[in-house]
Amino acid sequence: MVELMQNASKAPAVFLDRDGTICKEVGYLAHPEQLELLPGSPQAIARLNRAGVIVIVTTNQSGVARGYFTEADVAAVHKRLEELLAARGAWLDAVYYCPHHPEKGMEPYLVDCECRKPKLGMIRRAQEEFLLDIGCSYAVGDKLSDVAFGKAAGLRTVLVLTGYGAGEQQKLASHPALNPDFIARDLSDAVSWIVNDLYQRGVLSIEPEALPDS
Asked: Which residue of 14, 20, 33, 167 has the fewest CB atoms within a 10 Å radius of its CB?
């Protein structure tokens, strides 16, 4: 990886939702063979990798609590995700998930936890494991809960219109506090905005044009 950050002690991060953002939304994704990457998402993640940005998936997986699949199934899906990305020259620095639900499901997962988005448990875990420049980090997802998650942590936020995003956009008129910093067509569009924003903020020392999509 080419180090492009001006401040080598800390790096910005992009917290990516999984379903509907990186891969196709299929409801409760229980099996690796169901996983289908959205067009352009591997290239977008690779672009962040080349920029020295930490890429972390944060995903609510209440299907575990509901008994639809197990944590082993989640691990198998994430292994497949990383294999598909690796085949296209991209990688994830970490994958965090919440298996809980506060109201629906079975023990020990039936709990009002601190890791279910929009709560900040997964971001706090990232802060413990990485040297993050939180003030120059971003949250990207297809739900307003992803936007709320990012705003609560002081991140800049992007709503993508893939997955549930187009429907969520319609809710913004009645939830003005959840207006994201940017609304993107897809993850590629989101990453283009992020890379340009980092450059404008003086975080990237290389022009965005030097970080092509492919």
From this structure: 33
Which residues are marked as active site?
A: 17, 19
Provide the residue type at 127 as one letter: Q
Strand segments, DSSP code E, in the chain are: 13-16, 54-60, 94-98, 138-141, 156-160, 182-184
133 three-class SS: coil
* pLDDT tens profile 154-188: 999 999 999 999 999 999 999 999 999 999 999 99
Amino acid at residue number 49: N
* pLDDT at residue 205, rounded to an integer: 84
Phi (first) and psi of residue 113, to 5 degrees: -85, 180
Residues in the chain: 214
- The two beta strands, 94-98 and 156-160, are unpaired
Q: Which residues of 137-156 are buried (b: 16+ CB within 10 A; e: fewer)?
A: bbbbbbbbbbbbbbbebebb
199: region left, alpha or beta (phi > 0 left; psi from -120 to 50 alpha): alpha
Give the global pTM. 0.94
DSSP classification of residue 159: E
User: DSSP string of 50-101?
Assistant: HTT-EEEEEEE-THHHHTSS-HHHHHHHHHHHHHHHHTTT---SEEEEE--B
Phi, psi of 31 (to 5 degrees): -130, 145
Architecture label for domain 13-203? 3-Layer(aba) Sandwich (3.40)
